[in-house]
Amino acid sequence: MTKTYVNRAPQDTRGSWLTYVGLSLVLLFSAFPVYWMFVISTSTDEAVAQIPPSVLPGGEFWTNANEVFTLNEVFFAASLINSVIVSSVITLSTLFFCSLAGFAFAKLRFRGRNALLVVVVLTLTVPSQLGIVALYIVMGKLGWNGSLLAVIAPGLVSAFGVFYMRQFIAHAVPDELVESARIDGALNLRVYWNIVLPAIRPALAVLGLLTFVMAWNDFQWPLIQLNGTDFPTSMVALSDLASGNYVIYRRVLAGAFIATVPLIVLLLIGGRQIVRGIMEGAVKS
Amino acid sequence: MSLTELRPASHRPAPPPKNVRTRSWLHRFDNKTAPYIFISPFFILFGIFGVFPLIFNGVVAVRNWRLDDPTLTGWAGLDNFNRLLSDEDFWNALGNTFGIFILSTVPQLLIALVIANLLNRKLRGNTFWRIGILLPYLTPVVASTLVFAIFFARDNGMANWFLSLVGFGQETPLDWRAQKWSAWIAIATMVNWKWIGYNALLYLSAMQAIPRDVYEAAAVDGAGPWRQLWRITVPMIQPVVVFTVILSTIGGLQLFNEPMMFDENPQSASGGSAHQFQTIAQLIYKVGWKDLDLGYAAAMSWALFLIILIVAGINTLLTRRIGGDR
């Protein structure tokens, strides 16, 4: 028994049943809050207050969801649409601008390229959240405060996106391919569109998924911008629902669950890509 | 598709185009200018909305800048910073931030290490496990914190129910929000829940690059799995460990969503009845957008920036020492 590990690297060790028990516990710990969110969103007030707590879903989901959507103080349906708009615009723009810049940094020669790339890498380390006060003033000067535009604008590009795209394009697109296309007379924009974009689809999927998740879950900046307006994002709407003296949890959690569903769907569709993206060093900005 | 074909060098001369002049001008423009056009959207947008505000923040911090009194503008010098030094709320928030930060970062990274070690074996369905532990990373903090708020409720909360099962607090259930230590533990639990899986994946990716003969040599010397983890794996993935320490320092010291949504009244940003769990990021929000004093809020975020730099620096040194010299 004590000798089983000899001459084995961990990668070669077959998971014993204990490994599986351990991982199952981890998975239970990961999934339980989300599951419980669902349970409460399907329960009645009495079931929420019950001791010991009920861990099985009730049948009230549609009642609770309906209440969230018909509330007059909080525009929940509109907030979901806003979240879709904000996250989609940010994702598409990040993918386009970052892959374009990544292509230039990876494959084109121009004066100052290395210095500018250093600037990109340096800005990776800047926690831009610390500039929110000044960012708010900037948005004020532009006249955008309180609008979706102010929420979207800071997310349109990311330094991480440029760096990630540069790394991927440098490896995934052969120089010869770019050269031969140029010799055929293709302009750079055409090379980008016809050669680079199709070759980097996996990287676009990874960056797109991560960006969408981040934009959807963002809270502080949308709260500053949209608190008290008629068109918040779903995260701001949720904090509204949870404020006040008497909070109806089954209703709030129904809203929370509905706002989580799109991300669960993304995890089911693109889980493999997200995992790979993170393991390749994808980092929150 | 001719664009993608590789051609031998002899084919190089292109067929004579109709409009040689326009073409060559276009191609010169394309070679010289297009790269700058391609990178300019990033630099313009990031400049306006990322870098400039950060610098401009420094200017706002040394000015009076009140949203409720636009006439009160002008140079404030170091007033905002001086005020900071004697502001009890600030020091309280700083203490809370550090308390929660330590309670979350240390267990988070240690548990992630152990989980990564489990995942770094031949497993059935290894993608399934990896996707599973990422569920918290994708779940909106605003949503999951609401669940935890119910979990840590004083009456009818699941945490108190568990405690009562093992004989704690049957007469007087624990009010998690009321005291610093209990509120910190509750909030740290939420942070740990969210980030353990993410960090485990980062560690796992580094672990997979460790050559197996290192382990063979260690095993010959009689090192068991636990010793191998601490003496080989951890030192060999040290760069990633340093990286996660820096990341969680930056994230942990800017903690905002969890303490906000744990509050019974999230919109107040007060962090509990007596600010037991008000963090600095929360205080910045309150000073700026509830008290409408942007100048003072900017000074606070500069202070936080400096604190993050210092703590990240210390952490990096410590991690290097622990990982490298043993």
From TrEMBL, chain A:
Primary residence: membrane
Limits of the ABC transmembrane type-1 domain: 80-270
SUPFAM superfamilies xrefs: MetI-like
Sequence intervals crossing the membrane: 17-38, 74-103, 115-138, 144-164, 191-216, 248-269
Cellular compartments per GO CC: plasma membrane
Keywords, ordered alphabetically: Cell membrane, Membrane, Transmembrane, Transmembrane helix, Transport
CDD domains per record: TM_PBP2
Bilayer topology annotation: Multi-pass membrane protein
Family statement: Belongs to the binding-protein-dependent transport system permease family.
Protein name: Cellobiose transport system permease protein
InterPro entries, sorted: MetI-like (IPR000515), MetI-like_sf (IPR035906)
Name of a matching Pfam family: BPD_transp_1
UniProt key word Transport: yes
Organism: Paractinoplanes brasiliensis
A single GO BP: transmembrane transport
Compartments it resides in: Cell membrane
From TrEMBL, chain B:
Location of the ABC transmembrane type-1 domain: 94-315
InterPro entries: ABC_transporter_permease, MetI-like, MetI-like_sf
Gene3D superfamilies to which the protein is assigned, alphabetical: MetI-like (1.10.3720.10)
Cellular component terms (Gene Ontology): plasma membrane
Membrane-crossing residue ranges in chain numbering: 33-56, 98-119, 131-153, 181-204, 236-256, 294-318
CDD domains, per the entry: TM_PBP2
Membrane topology field: Multi-pass membrane protein
Localization of this protein: Cell membrane
Highest taxon of source: Bacteria
GO BP: transmembrane transport
Main location: membrane
Protein keywords: Cell membrane, Membrane, Transmembrane, Transmembrane helix, Transport
Signal peptide: none
PANTHER family named in the record: ABC TRANSPORTER PERMEASE PROTEIN (PTHR30193), INNER MEMBRANE ABC TRANSPORTER PERMEASE PROTEIN YCJO (PTHR30193:SF37)
Family: Belongs to the binding-protein-dependent transport system permease family.
The protein's name in its UniProt record: Cellobiose transport system permease protein
Native species: Paractinoplanes brasiliensis
